[in-house]
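Data availability (excerpt). The following record was deposited with the supplementary files.
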Amino acid sequence: MLAVLVAALLVPTTALAHSGGTGGTDYRSSITNVPAGVEARIIGGDDRIKITRTDAAEVLIPGYGGEPYLRLDAQGTWENRNSPAVALNDVRRTSEAIPNAATKIAPDWVQISTGTSVVFHDHRAHWMGSQPPAKVRADPDREQVLYDWSFPLTIDGTEAEIRGDLTWLGAPMTWLWWTLTALAVIAAAAIGSVRRVPANLAAIIGTLAAILASLLTGVSQQLDLPDGTSGALVAVAIAAVLLAVGLGLGHRLRAVPAHATTVLLLVALVAGGVQLVGLAGSAFAYALVPGPLPTLLTRVLIILGLAGVALTAGACARAWRALLADLPAQPATKAPTW
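Predicted structure:
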């Protein structure tokens, strides 16, 4: 049991190192026009932009003042370290003024990869204020387009631009989702405690629900990242291994339900519950959770997964109560008669 817990705690740490930090957002930045020769997509809802060179031989992305900033060519991707955009784009919000004139310093090109894509933050494609704009504060529940954005680029010597828009998605009902989660957890724990439901079966169902919900939401987050395919495959492999170990040990210990359900509860907590609780903080507080899964489905999976953990916990608690109740009574100790 300790070996299962240690493995479950250590292995996901490697996968999470590649998960990025897109989190949740109340805004959605969408690309509406992409010129020929490149591909573009938004990462993290409104956080970063990924530009991929497809048919073009060279793509030059200027900084805010028109100076050379990024370059994609046959050798890979390059960054001009003398561009003010390097420092400005390193943070999501900045108090520094966005320059509107190019720096006169000669470019200092540094190769950052040998691939065909570059990912960068651009302040034109997201809302810079710490508070929503006035028209959103006046009607925060309504989805509304805030503004159109664009930035130029040069493709094989021809000037072009990528265009998009930024939308406020509306404030989510955070209290409602936490309330539904609490009700689902209480109900599942009560079901797991019912004598008519076999403890081992309830624990297996609960563990399956927790791991499956955690896997689907985790893979969705990985696929939103620039290089998330490998991370998604690692997440699937980890889930399969932990599930196999948990079910295998649970089956081997099935004669003592208290021991079998404890193993399954450990796996459900570490492989599912921990991640789902962390994700719930973003999914319930923000209108958009980045990834191919719709945010509504992500929230439903979180609730089902946490309910699965509670079902396993209820079954485990009942199994231990039954085990302790069946222990033989200890004989009373009599005082010695000398």
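Summary of structural features: Residues 7-21 have pLDDT under 50 and may be disordered.
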